[in-house]
Design goal:
This protein is α/β, with parallel strands linked by helices. The protein is built from seven helices and six strands. The longest helix is centred in the middle third of the chain and has 27 residues.
Amino acid sequence: MTGKRPAVILLHGSRGIELKPRAYGRYADALSAKGIDAYLLRYMTDSDTAALNPKTSTQESREAYDTGRFDGWSDTVSATVTTILDRLDSSGRVGLLGFSLGGFIAANTAARDERIAALAVLYAGMHEAMAGKVKHMPPMIALHGEADRNVPIANGKKLIELARSVGAEAEFVPYPDRSHGFDFSDTDPMTSDAIGRVTRFFQARLAA
């Protein structure tokens, strides 16, 4: 598509893009089909990957590591936003789409960087250490499986409440009986439902 276009940056989960590249690709393809540039950002360093390896770490150590890295990861996302906005084909409208850990990072970045025009978060929330500092959030949508044991659905609900408390428009979409990463399934009909909702959200929010 020619002319100036909006963009969405996709932020993967803690196990990287390689865990299920097809799943991220489906979102990127759906956005691109609607004239929205999609960028899948590798925000993690080799040290991050090693520290978050579930085979060699505990949940407690991973959570402690995340807390110390959120702002650094958000700085990487914001630097990418700057690069995109500097492109001649940028419409000046950029959104963030985050999955699991990437959703927490997307929410943290959107609260810090007012250039973010729209936020979509899947099975994530706002880290408690950052929640008390939030003064701003863009329009957002959060999708969450009700049977999520990795990131309980309460996290998504709290994020929506936080966004609304600072005046942002925020929509919450629960998925009954669905677990963490439900939309990574190649056969679950809720995969296409989630992709459709997210795509329509960005179409509406990133229009010039």
